[in-house]
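Researcher: Predict the fold of Protein disulfide-isomerase TMX3.
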Amino acid sequence: AMVAVALASDAVFVEDLDESFKENRKDDIWLVDFYAPWCGHCKKLEPVWNEVGIEMKNMGSPVKVGKMDATSFSSIASEFGVRGYPTIKLLKGDLAYNYRGPRTKDDIIEFANRVAGPLIRPLPSQHMFEHVQKRHRVLFVYVGGESPLKEKYIEVASELIVYTYFFSASEDVLPEYVTLPELPAVVVFKDGTYFVYDEYEDGDLSSWINRERFQGYLNVDGFTLYELGDTGKLVAIAVIDDKNSSVEHTRLKSIIQEVARDYRDHFHRDFQFGHMDGNDYINSLLMDDLTIPTIVVLNTSNQQYFLPDRHIENTEDMVQFINDILDGTAEAQGGDGVLQRIKRIIYDAKSTVVSVFKSSPLLGCFLFGLPLGVISIMCYGICTADTDGGVDEHEGAKKENSDRELTDEGSEEEQEEEKNGKYTELSDGDLKQKDLLEKKKD
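Model: Structure tokens for Protein disulfide-isomerase TMX3 follow.
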């Protein structure tokens, strides 16, 4: 037992990769985390990544798990198209598949097993079909032999394998309730039923699969909403409190579910339906405070949204609201214009300040109080310097004027002496005149 523990402690479940990885990786399948040492999200992923390495090793997976410091080996990271941290990629031959799902152990392992396996997985029997259908909420199946449609199916699978599984089967493997108008065909099984791809009605196969890879009704969160942006659909959401069992909360959720189920043929090409627990995320998205429960329709392509102009009482009201959006009579709010972008900057800045002060008041005071204090001191110094300079200049001018007065007029003593001097000169003149007069008399 002690030897087993020692071996387990020395085992390497996640390999640190360097520049030699580029040359040695071609014969293996690698699941790699490209990280940066200073990245907070990378540090948060690290324990999860270690669990992924342990689990993949224990299950005997052919996928090797590694991590690479993308800042130290930036040339290799750039070659694989790494643009942010952390970036998770599965490298299989000459192909690199990006992982875009939640950063949990189970989701990452599911992604690795799906992409590392066969691109198209055959279903040889009805028993196997039933087993796979129980495991997957959405199931894509190609039915038929070799054809141009199968070639297109394989091409789409190589692109979208990061999101979902792709299977193939013969017609006799399918359940008896399935009726296909012709072969070959591509069928999706979901929501307790099935839908057949029609090139004329559904357009490009890749776009159709991308739209249909979600169930008709979803529990929507931030990540799901981000993924739904790729479908080009509007997203109709009942924003409720899952913990609140009041009639109004359950009623709005039921209305959305009924529309998703009963009006699929009318709206499924343009709308995705679901509910969201709480309004925090939706408030940050709309930059508004929505009172729950409520219904909102989001256009993720241009950040517009629609709110009903009347109370939604039943399914008919919801259908009318959707039709108003489709025919352009419903008022769109938000968008991605210049004013909305400015509003977004202000809103994000305000939210950041508030969140910092809520989480750590002392840190908030330091981060925002210190710069404000420095700026205040600088402004005070500038204003004080200007005021003192003005006083000194004024005093200097007064002193200069005073000096000029003293220089021009002289001191009081000099003025007195000058007066005495003038008096003396005048007295001598008078004396001389007097002497001349006296001489004339003689």
